[in-house]
Amino acid sequence: MIEFQHVSFAYEKNVPVLKDLSFRIDTGEAVGLIGANGAGKSTVMKLLLGLLEGEGKILVDGTEVRRDTLPEIRRKLGFVLQNSDNQMFMPTVYEDMMFAPLNYMLSRREAEARVDAVLKRLHLEDLKHRYNHRISGGEKRMAAIATILAMEPEVILMDEPTSALDPYNRRIVIDTIRELEQTKLITSHDLDMILDTCNRVILLSDGRIVADGTAEDILHDRALLEKHRMELPLSLMGRQE
Questions:
Q1: Distance (Å, rounded) from C-alpha 171 to C-alpha 82?
Q2: What is the CA radius of gyration of the chain?
Q3: Order of strands, edge to edge, in the sheet holding 200-205?
Q4: Alpha-carbon distance values, 241 to 64, 215, 228, 235 (Å)
């Protein structure tokens, strides 16, 4: 579904951020992309979305990410931003969710049916006509996920989906992510959330992949994580004392 082939990128000449990155994510996988600050996680997302151009080749469902293929690529990808305020730009949740389907040339009736189906699936019917500036942070994060699902993407990208959430809303978001059937690529410093939602983890350090394996193996490896300026998930701390 997603393939990086020898991808490198530098914001400044001779200061590479990503160095010869190669990996593949198959359809239906849930992959956590982790690493300390500056490891290159956000850059991977931006390259995949075509917001940046680097060296090497990136494929989405067999189509290379290039300027001329971006409309096709972006219809397959749904990106949930870290800050929902940067994603929800219409007055109400309903209007935000309708925006993409209508721009994909669905009729208003078809778009409304899709929006209602997503809201019902996520148990968010009560948010439909709420104003975005009058809902809580957790509700806004859920609304942002609903907006992306209304696009019916094949791949969902998430950047720190549980950041700044209280424990109750964090659990709702985690449970929602676990139920999503799409291919998922999630970046986060919340390793407990990654352990709960992903079956595979890719660990970046200094722009390179230093580990790629099951979430269970990588997130239980204290020595590996500490070597790359990370710590065990909080839920595992006491078990390894």
A1: 16
A2: 18
A3: 77-80, 155-159, 183-187, 30-34, 200-205, 208-214
A4: 47, 20, 20, 12
pLDDT tens digits for range 126-180: 999 999 988 888 888 889 889 988 998 999 999 988 887 888 888 888 988 898 8
> Which amino acid is it at 190?
D
Of 208, 218, 236, 187, give the one whose Cα is nearest residue 30.
187
pLDDT band at 239 (very low <50, low <70, confident <90, very high): low
Q: What is the pLDDT of residues 49-91, one digit of tens each?
A: 999 999 999 999 999 999 999 999 988 999 988 777 777 889 9
What residue type is assigned to position 144 of the chain? A
pLDDT of residue 86: 77
